[in-house]
Amino acid sequence: MNDHIRNFCIIAHIDHGKSTLADRMLQMTGTISEREMTDQVLDSMDLEREKGVTIKASAVRMNYIAKDGKQYELNLIDTPGHVDFNYEVSRALEACEGALLVVDATQGIEAQTLANLYLALESNLVIIPVINKIDLNSARPDEVSDDLTNLLGTPGDQIVRISAKEGLNIDQVLDAIINRIPPPGGQGDEALKALIFDSHYDSYKGVIAYIRVFDGSIKTNSMLRLMATHTELKPVEIGFFGPDLRPVSELFPGDVGYVATGLKTVSECRVGDTITLVSNPANRPMPGYRKVKPMVFAGIYPVDGDDYSDLKDALEKLQLNDASLIYDPETSQALNFGFRCGFLGLFHMEIIQERLEREYDLNIIVTAPSVEYEIVLVSGETVHIDSPARFPGEEQIAEIREPWMKVQIFTPTEFYGTVMELATKRRGIFLSQEYPAPNRVQLSYDIPLSEIIIDFFDDLKSRTKGYASLDYQFADYRPDELVKLEVLVNDDPVDALAAIVHKKDAYHKGQRLVTKLKAIIPRQLFEVAVQASASGRVISRATVKALRKDVLAKCYGGDITRKRKLLEKQKKGKRRMKMVGSVEIPQDAFMAILRLGEE
Amino acid sequence: MLGWMEVHGVYLHFPFCVKRCLYCDFNTTTGTLEYLPEYVNAICQEIDLVASSLSFPLKIHTIYLGGGTPSLLSVYQIDQVLTRMRLSFDLARETEITLEANPGTVSFNYLFGLHQLGVNRLSLGIQSAVPAELTLMGRIHTVEEARQSIQDARMAGFDNFNLDFIYGLPGQTKANWQQSLDFAIENAPEHLSLYALTLDDHTPMARQIADGILKTPDDDMAADFYEMAMDQLAKAGYQQYEISNWATICGDTSRVCMHNMQYWHNQPYLGFGSGSHGYSQGVRTVNVVPLEEYIKRVRSDQKQVFPLSPANEIRNEIGETTRMQEAMMLGLRLTDEGIARSHYILLYQQDYYEIFHKEIDRLLGLGLLEWVEDNQERIRLTRKARLLGNQVFMNFVGDA
pTM of the full predicted structure? Predict the structure, then answer.
């Protein structure tokens, strides 16, 4: 009964052309008129377009008349393109029967190509390999095609070669979707099972759940139950994505669409949950649901204390759309009132920071990210602490455990040595190596998360001239010798500058941090002393000398406006700094621990 | 239009140089001397255009010929400009007429000619008395030529002149600076301007520093030089009246630069010539910079409402708030007199201590501002704040 439906997604490494291919398909199927076409329709956030990465999943239904003359309904589910959002990706894949694996003809296979491919294979999807950007001079489609054949066993003639940018061979992609991906199946008379693979908040209709119906059907008047959160609701509206919301009266097995739930927060409607009917519930939910846990934590503070309530409102609004963002009020001696926020990863953190600054026009300080430590106290109690500022005193601690990750690094073989060296320096433990393609090696390690969030990706990229890619998943908690590195400014400890480091790194990191802070903190009207200490011992000390000269000497032929503008600019710069005691500290200082580098 | 208007100053800009100094980012040109006659005609035409947009002759009490190098004009050309000024405006009997001159471009005969024309103040760009520093700056004259120019100026009848110096040069030592200070004091000018080197990124000197050819100037060293100057000039009988300016005061005769005081007092002035700035009737104007464009615009001969000129590229009306902010930013540069509250109230109908109460109290607390007398009538920078002016001024500009 749903032979005309095909549900598929596109998986690709960043910049391999996923969004451009999606755009071309939307154009070819007439889903979007030329007039409505803005570049990369599915990436609706400005940030997504700018970073070239999909942050939230989205879906669209396309109608296509194939060569056999029949009309098909193609549901494209666009998946997030970053390792921070792996769980969301896995749920989106679960909603599909097939996947287009897009590989750049100039770059070849990358770590995320592989990571997403393995996820897709776990969900038993039919894979259609697509080689993109064949129009480029540096394209080497034959080589990439051979690599894909080795990897997937797909014969070369079944690998579609396209240029999404030029609109070349897009029809072959559409035909492959129809011919090779199976229709969804599912039974209309079974108990309702619909998987939530994403959601967003709409101020009129409440949380909009993005769903894939597996069995049964949803009508406008059905009373629904969310199986994991036990929430019951009557939909405000149901429909499909065109790509805007298009209401319908019923959604059938195999359909991809939405339920406007009227719920007020996305946390009541979690990705991975299963929707069923109150009157005739399914026995079991769809497998694979889990509550995603933040891995990276940082403090977010308003520069100006008066903005506290605006910051709170903004976080509340962001959370409406982002169940994986968590925040709790926290107080810092140095930064006063703010929030401790939890993120899926560094990328997620960066996105939130930029959205707060740009969409909500807030002037904020973000403290250096930390992981969540598991601390066994002398008393025998175990506590979880995600902020160096709140570490108990050393005398109370029996053992500190930190999160370790399973890390896969995919790189051309020529960089084998330097990648090894990086991983070792970051306390990595080598596990295995594989050669999935010629001249490419995938190295697997266990590495503490705290080492990854500090500059790891940038270091990896610069060591491998940008060729290596990275993927990681949580492994477990392991004990190690960790100490708190404290920073004192004019003899007062600044809690927001503290960091947890490995004992063997404390000395040189402390020294480098002080040097860095000395360079970052501008000269003030008085002398400022900066110190780093660990285990009650001062490691390093530097002095920022008092400012003596800061004046425009001359008035150029009566140009008063220029003078005033320069002063206004200087005043604005000063406003962006945080007063800690009587010392003005720029935002950069709170991130200094991340950028100790190898000078 | 009212028949009365505050007395104005006039700035005349001559953007011509033989060679550009290596630290200079100001509006000037080289290799353009062929335009000079046309330019002088144009500036005279602009003066006439603006002056005749009033139905009465405007009162003027200072004229400043700046550059560039105005001493590249011939005596005849200076005469042409000053005659135009006298015909167009009502010049006060004691009008201060300053001309900026570079040693090396002036002879005794030339200076004598200027003095005869009524130029009564000379500003000489000496910059340094250390030969190596003159080379470093790309100056076209020697120390000897500077000395000669000063003597010639005296002989020609000038009893009021200024010497310009620059301190804080890359690699400058205390001994170097002492040499320049000694030179300044020996020659006993009536007025001294000492400017801390300020480098725009686009200047050749800034590039030489970026490339590591020259040492980065040391701000602490510059602060030391400034202290040296403050001490020694006070001993030599000079009064510091502005952050970068010193003058002699003999009985009733103060040799402060009247024209610059016009700026610091936030009083009106007209600007003529390419890229010149004016401030009158609450409007700040800036003329177009390119010479040909300037000449073309003036030739269009379009009369405008006073104080506008067809050569204006920018016209900014200064609102009430900005006007009061600028009065603070400028007035506080006057290191001796500061800003009088009664005078401020007279001009702006508001008391600055009421408007900026919070800022002033904070700055008093930081030791950057002080009341001159116990009655809190006059506020000024403290001695230590003279080099930290921006830290004070910025509190009075922009949004509260």
Answer: 0.71
